[in-house]
Design a protein that fits this description.
Aminopeptidase; eight-stranded mixed beta sheet
Length: about 210
């Protein structure tokens, strides 16, 4: 669509040119309502990594970008209701513009997201997403993940967490925090794999898993 192309062109433009291009596109009505300009950095190509899953399938992990909204909506609509609730802590029928902005329109500084992509470049499919958001007051980053049901159990969540953690360490982040429903044993196990220094605190229906690097 015109809107997707406008967002994509802004993302690949030189960072100094993006604010002016963004305002022009918004004035012409080429941008989705609520779209914001969050990233003024170069595309972090160092976060691109081909990975091999337990069953031998290969995927590309790459940074989430502002034009991934439709791909993430497609992923969301393949999630079972239970997975949606454990990821977002509420019942949802779809992703709002604000939700999409939070997932993929990131500054790649205090907010870092990765997507797992399969399929041809002209028709990609996002099958998993992971992100961290840094709390600068504690230098700890909160993490969250979602994985397509057909791609669960293959180590994809662990690979996303490993790549995010490696990047966070390079950036001087102290560790990760994950707030997880107490019944979500799979995600609790994943969070505990992030470090040898792990603490788990019960908070009613949820647990907070803190891993220090």
């Amino acid at each position: 669509s015109v809107r997707e192309r406008a967002v994509a062109l802004i993302q690949i433009a030189h960072p100094d040119s993006r604010p002016a291009l963004f305002e022009q596109a918004r004035a012409l009505g080429y941008l989705p309502e609520g779209q914001k300009l969050r990233n003024l950095h170069d595309y972090p190509v160092e976060l691109e990594h081909p990975v091999t899953l337990k069953d031998g399938q290969q995927l590309l992990l790459r940074p989430a970008t502002a034009n991934d909204g439709d791909l993430l909506r497609a992923l969301f609509h393949r999630l079972p209701e239970g997975d949606i609730y454990t990821r977002f802590f509420r019942r949802m029928r779809g992703l709002s513009i604000g939700d999409v902005q939070h997932l993929c329109n990131l500054n790649h500084d205090t907010e870092v997201g990765l997507v797992a992509v399969t399929g041809p470049r002209e028709d990609p499919q996002v099958v998993a997403h992971g992100l961290y958001a840094l709390d600068t007051s504690t230098n700890l980053a909160e993490t969250a993940f979602m994985v397509h049901p057909d791609w669960q159990g293959l180590g994809l969540g662990a690979l996303l967490q490993q790549q995010l953690a490696a990047h966070a360490r390079r950036c001087g982040v102290r560790g990760f925090v994950a707030e997880i429903l107490a019944t979500n044993e799979r995600m609790i196990r994943l969070a505990r794999q992030g470090s040898d220094q792990v603490s788990v605190a019960s908070e009613g229906s949820t647990v907070k898993v803190t891993t220090l690097f």
